[in-house]
Amino acid sequence: MTAIRNIAIIAHVDHGKTTLVDKIMHHCSLFRENEATGELILDNNDLERERGITITSKNVSVVYRDTKINIIDTPGHADFGGEVERVLNMADGVLLLVDAFEGPMPQTRFVLQKAIDLGLKPCVVINKVDKENCTPDEVHEKVFDLMFELGAEEWQLDFPTVYGSAKNNWMNDDWRNETTNIEPLLDMVIEHIPAPKVDLVGSPQMLITSLDFSSFTGRIAIGRLQRGTLKENQQVSLVKRDGSIKKTRIKELHTFEGLGRRKIDEVQAGDICAIVGLEGFEIGDTVADLENPEGLKTIAIDEPTMSMLFTINDSPFFGKDGKFVTSRHIKDRLMKELEKNLALRVEETDSADKFMVFGRGVLHLSVLIETMRREGYELQIGQPQVIIREIDGVKCEPIEELTIDLPEDVSGKAVEMVSLRKGEMLSMESRGNRMHIEFMIPSRGIIGLRNQLLTATAGEAIMAHRFKEYQPLKGGIPERQNGSLVSMEKGKAIPYSIDKLQDRGRFFVAPGEDIYEGQVIGENSRQDDMAVNITKTKKLSNVRSSGADDKAKIVPAIKFSLEEALEYIQKDEYVEVTPAFIRLRKVLLTENERKRSKAI
């Protein structure tokens, strides 16, 4: 039995978790000297690399001083909190990463609360001490205060700390003395993180906390074996969430080794393993003894706070780009996603073509939509709506804790914007020439706020938020002020027409783009919607007037990312998503239909 340590790395988004894992893997010689590995090795899917964020948690293992360390890299965004909650069950301790300048942020608080509740031993890493104006000692104090506030026990409050810069590959217990490697961090893990409490004698028990999928072997169950041993070809029972028991068999067992997995004959308690061949399992089920199965406490998942309507693409351009366009395709894909995405819910509506999808936030759902789009799906999405609940006869909505970090001279504008959206300011402190402001704000108020904030602060604002609780409805929140410019005709966008209509508003389509009737092609400078025709060419008659042939000067079209488009649309609009395009459109395409529906 080798010595084992199971640790999860938790932190707020962008505090350097995945970079730290890179350095640990390099230090423990997982790669050949001449191997080109690149950076952020664990962020291995395209979406993670493009956005620079971790979306799904990953397992990797390294060997340091004859001890096997299983490391779980977790996402930092609040929208992927479901991922963090379930994988913490596999760990015996956590490495809490905190930025030496920003200090504990909203998501730090959220994941730390989960770790403390599970009784895990925290070790603190204060990262990025090479930043200017950073205050590592103050941040250490703040982490202590935060743990005390979250109800940590005495042995958890007595946490070890190392300081350093993961990017520059050094750690030390004193931030003023730069070292040459990250050994102090690994020594801290071996010394302070407890070894798994192993019970090799009892019947086997393993809670399934993660899923993987292989096109060769099907679904793979991942979890930490709490008790007993598991062997290849062993007959086992599955204890389901509802307490029912199902008999099945283990075909293969794998443990994590480096970045991959190694097939083995037997797994002993304390190690994290992957099981191939189990049938009909879900996350939260327990793999137990065949004869007398005992279930473990299942995983409780926080409820979704936002919903979107997913429907088939029925625009005039449907089926031009995508391979999967029918409602059956979309339904099958959503059901497949449910298997591994715990914080997601899907409900069918009275129409066979429409599905209500519930998730943690706009980012959570937009990652799913972006993934489907890249797989060749075409679909349309309605405006994001927050989930209103009735608690004790009172209608309540989700409230979030919002922190904004921005230059001091534009802080007044930000406070005004958040207040308009029913936000209440909790605190405001200056850090160097920047302000750090905390608010409580309804989730509805956050939809569309990021774009406005970035515009008002010239891209300087950093915004983070996390779900706090349900509170009684706060009343109306001002929606988008400007109406839409809607196309009257199907055809190509003509530069001449765009040039003549530029004083009406800003355009989202470039000259030469194909458009259809009912497509939202721009933002009106006034409050109401306006139907315009940008497919008209100049009449080439033989009547000429002097100076009439000026060159068309066209302002470049505004192109939305998927999240921006979802936050921008109004109730009577859809985002049409295909592998090649993101278009905005009205739900009712012709102007007559729109007028008729308003009259009703």
From TrEMBL:
Q: Which domain of life is it from?
A: Bacteria
One Pfam family in the UniProt entry: BipA_C
Q: Where in the cell is it found?
A: Cytoplasm
Q: What is its EC number?
A: 3.6.5.-
> Matching InterPro entries, A to Z?
BipA, BipA_C, BipA_GTP-bd_dom, BipA_II, BipA_III, BipA_V, EFG_III/V, EFG_V-like
Residues holding GTP = D14, H15, G16, K17, T18, T19, N127, K128, V129, D130
Q: Which SMART domains match?
A: EFG_C
Q: Tell me which SUPFAM superfamilies the record gives.
A: EF-G C-terminal domain-like, P-loop containing nucleoside triphosphate hydrolases, Translation proteins
- Where is it predominantly found? cytoplasm
UniProt domain Tr-type G: residue ranges:
2-197
Q: Which residues cross the membrane?
A: none
- Enzymatic reactions: GTP + H2O = GDP + phosphate + H(+)
Enzyme group, top EC level? hydrolase
Q: Which UniProt keywords apply?
A: Cytoplasm, GTP-binding, Hydrolase, Nucleotide-binding, Ribosome biogenesis, RNA-binding, rRNA-binding, tRNA-binding
Q: Which family does it belong to?
A: Belongs to the TRAFAC class translation factor GTPase superfamily. Classic translation factor GTPase family. BipA subfamily.
On subunit structure and binding partners, the annotation says: Monomer.
User: What does the UniProt function comment say about this protein?
Assistant: A 50S ribosomal subunit assembly protein with GTPase activity, required for 50S subunit assembly at low temperatures, may also play a role in translation. Binds GTP and analogs. Binds the 70S ribosome between the 30S and 50S subunits, in a similar position as ribosome-bound EF-G; it contacts a number of ribosomal proteins, both rRNAs and the A-site tRNA.
Question: What protein name is recorded for this chain?
Answer: Large ribosomal subunit assembly factor BipA
Species name for this entry?
Answer: Christiangramia antarctica
Gene encoding this chain? typA
